[in-house]
Fold:
Amino acid sequence: MTHTYPANFEEKTGFDRIRTMLLELCFSSLGRKVVDTIAFDTDSDSIRRRLSQAEEFRQILLAGEHFPGSNYHDPEELFGRLRPEGTYAEGEALLDLRLSLQTILDVLDFLDRRGEDEQVKYPWLARLARGINVDTELPASIHQLIDEHGEVRSSASPELRDIRQKKEELEKAALRRINTILNEGKAEGWVDRDVELALRNGRQVIPVPVAYKRKVRGFIHDHSATGQTAFLEPEEVFGLNNRVRDLEGEERQEVIRLLKAFADTLRPMIPELQKAYQMLGQVDAVRAKAKLALGMDALMPQLKDTPQLKWVNARHPLLYLSYKKQKKHVVPLTIELNEEHRILVISGPNAGGKSVCLKTCGLVQYMLQCGLLVPMESYSEAGIFHRLLIDIGDEQSLENDLSTYSSHLHNMKYFVHNVDKRSLFLIDEFGAGTEPRIGGAIAESILEELNNRKAMGVITTHYTNLKLMAGKHKGLLNGSMLFDSKEMRPLYRLKTGNPGSSFAFEIARSIGLSGDILERAGDLAGDKDLDFDVQLQNLDVKKAELEAKEKQLRHADDFLAEMIEKYEGLRDELQGRKNEVLAEARREAQQILAGANRIIENTIRQIKEAGAEKGKTREARQALEEYIREETEKLQKMPDAPAKKAKKKKQKVQQQPETAPGPIREGDAVKVKGQETPGEVEEISGKKALVVFGNIRMRVALDDLVKLKKSAIKQQRKAGSQSSTFDLNARAAAFSPDLDIRSCRVDEALHKVQAHIDDAWLLGVPQIRILHGKGDGVLRPAIRNLLKETPQVHRFRDEHPDRGGAGVTVVDFGK
Structure:
């Protein structure tokens, strides 16, 4: 059984174009032979080895390391000619052999490079060199025999050197003699003065007018086209040239003898040399893979020996390369298939990217199992399948009398009979091509059977029954290609979890189709189908809103965590300082007590020795009082940094920021009405602004902001943000939305409520609860009057009766 279906799988997915690109990137026919043999593999170890080799070569290219890249000659024809005994190779072929052998030795040397830890630098590529044995002296031996022009060197044997020396002397003598005769002819007038020597039959001759051809004895080799000129070789030169020809024959025989002798030496090495050249071809092919990977930003994902997909930002290779030339962006695909969700049912508008998603899955998975790096994130997880089956495009056949739908059913029959849990199937426009109700029912039945066989797959469809089926059956998962209903354009982005709307009516309306026609089409389609499509669209909108809210909550959680962390750090720092101050105070106290004890003991001793004499007793008492006074002054002079700093802070008079005229724009300094802390407008959207207050970003209505002069922000930065940050951290950590003022007087309660509102507004809390109780009803109206006059308050109301009723006021702030 084949691993892929149908037979033209590579043409269907576009892998034939990938193979052509690899062939063009190869240096030689050695690499092209290897590329031609690339095939779908199911062995995880083999796939991992080939991917790792391509990744290591990609790293070599990225690092700019010099890798041997010339003279990748294929000697297979030469080896075939040398196998029979008594044969030999010409000098040019041996020159190519020498150059390519040197390349092989250079490659082996590169692959054996070690790092600082003495480990092989590229271990996966080094595996290609295992078992390769090449005689390192062989290129030098060829070099001694063959020169840079592919000729056998004269130094190859004494006989050849003697023959060539004699031949050279005779050629020079013949040349001197024929030039002498030519000059004599010019002087005597039987040869024109502008005539030069010519070459006929490999011999130098003198062009002589036919009327003077008997002026000199010799052999006529040819005549001109007009018959007016004879090409004559003088008799005395003719003998010299004949001797040169004899020596050329002897030279050729000696050259052949030498080449045969070398062939006899080379012949036993051919099997080992063939292995070396196969390795060189593999290196050439791996290099081509790495070059292609760089062009399409392909990487090596994490390979898993299980049937699964967990791709992050995968891109269709051919589409990516095409868009790259046009400087356009390809929307990446993130997709996951696992044991729980094996089959993904993708729906959505036409031209929304469903088929591209399907073809991306087919081509990328095939490339991966052919050992090619793929365009996705390196932390993606890629599984291994034993079969890949696709049903994409029109397969109608006049020869086999198959319509499009018949061909589709033929493929489905093959799928149902051959898929298993290690199979990946891809079906485009599932069930299309026949009457929708019947086609949908058949498609649903086939999908159920494929799911029962535990196969993995991706299908695209417009059928509602398949969308509903994916939402109810275990193993099936809905997906949709997102569509911008406002701009009426596809977003080419896959979203899993919900089916997608076809947006047929919206697209028809956007291209200008008559409203009457669309209204009639709606009547014909029926409320049920239209309501389902509308519900899908509304679901997409609601989901997008929930995701936006969730993102805001995550940001708020992160901010709160940061505030708590800062608060705890400052708390620990203050506790440490407190402990240091206490320890220092204890040391000082111990020193004072020790000194006092000594003075007291000395005083008592002096009084006893004086026999309670009044004068001595008075002097001792005065000395003790003097010591106590001095120590008291020392304690009063001790630095009290925290107290002084606190006092300074209290004494500081905060400079009020100055307001500025004009509308509020991005970058302006502002403050919230009723507050004094300045902030900076980062973004304006509609009637709201995103304002940055220190480490906090808040969305505030423009009507609640007051524009300040630019200097307000600079003054705040100059003053420093340590104390305000600490205060903010403390408030964020200790803040509770509920405020209990049931035991407070009216003025005290109003003060607490105002402070609580300020804190909630500053921290971005959307709602607070004020517990004032019912009592005699004094607090409730006073608080509500305050809330009416507070601009930040959007509305307020009594709590639910089950949660306090009129004894609790719920306050919502403006959005």
